[in-house]
Amino acid sequence: MLAERRHQLILRALRSGGPAAVTDLSEQLGVSPATVRRDLLKLEEEGLLTRVHGGAVADEGDQPFAEVAEVRVPEKDAIAAKAASMIQDGQSVLLDIGTTAYRLARQLHGRRITVITSNLVVYEELVDDEDIELVLLGGMVRREYRSLVGFLTEDNLRQLHADWLFLGTSGIRPGGQVMDTTVVEVPVKRAMIKAGERVVLLADRAKFPGTGMAKVCGPEELDVVVTNAPVDAATRSSLEEAGVQVVVA
């Protein structure tokens, strides 16, 4: 069995059944405990689970796209509508992975703009819209999360510049740091920030403080935060001190 397939099955088992022991996972997958331990170490490095004594537990902050897409949809749509109103015809827009970026893509139909993305769901949403110039970044496919990652994605971004970047996040710390649960996505997000003229963070109320073990950027690299709820005093202070505009949808 390929490692990628084992990783998918391990995460599925942990999400459906809760914490699991190495011995149980070994029996389910038909591989040695040593192989399972190596898989758990790799998945922990990617921020997908937390190893505990004798086994592991899934990180609920990094659920597959299909699961997250059904959560807080009206809130995400309000944020998306506010973000879409910032874009002018003729501009270029870089859309990050994630479900809020997808909801934003749904607001862009019929606009004469250029959309650049590593988000496969955004691509599928806009591919038939002839008014939009659509650029799909290259890279390795993360099937469950509907995204493209890796050095090819990062190299593509180094050759591009966009008027706007709309960035997703797993969590925002009180100091204004933008966090992510998945280590493999972080280099792509950082490359997107360098490619964007103005960086807009899309964050619903669950992202304060949210989750995430890997730092994407500090508040000084953001221009705007669009959210659907009042931001706590400490986080708002950190953002405003860095010159970030907080917009409540």
Please report which band the strand proportion falls in: under 5%, 5-15%, 15-25%, 25-35%, 35-45% or over 45%. Answer: 15-25%
Arithmetic mean of pLDDT: 89
Structural class: alpha/beta
How many runs of DSSP E, i.e. beta strands?
Answer: 15
Q: Stretches where pLDDT falls below 50 for ≥5 residues?
A: none
First-last Cα distance? 47 Å
How much helix is in the residues?
25-40%
Q: How would a crystallographer describe the biggest sheet?
A: 7 strands, parallel
Could you tell me the radius of gyration in angstroms?
19 Å
Count of DSSP helices? 10
Sum up the overall morphology in one term.
Answer: globular
Pfam family, one: HTH_DeoR
GO molecular function: DNA binding
Protein name: DeoR/GlpR family DNA-binding transcription regulator
Organism: Streptomyces lutosisoli
Describe it:
InterPro entries: Carb_Metab_HTH_regulators (IPR050313), DeoR-like_C (IPR014036), DeoR_HTH (IPR001034), NagB/RpiA_transferase-like (IPR037171), Tscrpt_reg_HTH_DeoR_CS (IPR018356), Tscrpt_reg_HTH_GntR (IPR000524), WH-like_DNA-bd_sf (IPR036388), WH_DNA-bd_sf (IPR036390). It comes from Streptomyces lutosisoli. Keywords: DNA-binding, Transcription, Transcription regulation. It is globular, with a radius of gyration of 19 Å. The chain contains ten helices and 15 strands. The strands form four sheets. Strands 6-5-4-9-12-14-15 form a seven-stranded parallel β-sheet, sandwiched between helices. Strands 1-3-2 form a three-stranded antiparallel β-sheet. Strands 10-11-13 form a three-stranded antiparallel β-sheet, covered by helices on one side. The chain is 38% helix and 23% strand. The protein has 249 residues and is α/β, with parallel strands linked by helices. Strand 2 (49-52) and strand 3 (55-58) form a beta hairpin. The longest helix is centred in the first third of the chain and has 15 residues, at 3-17.
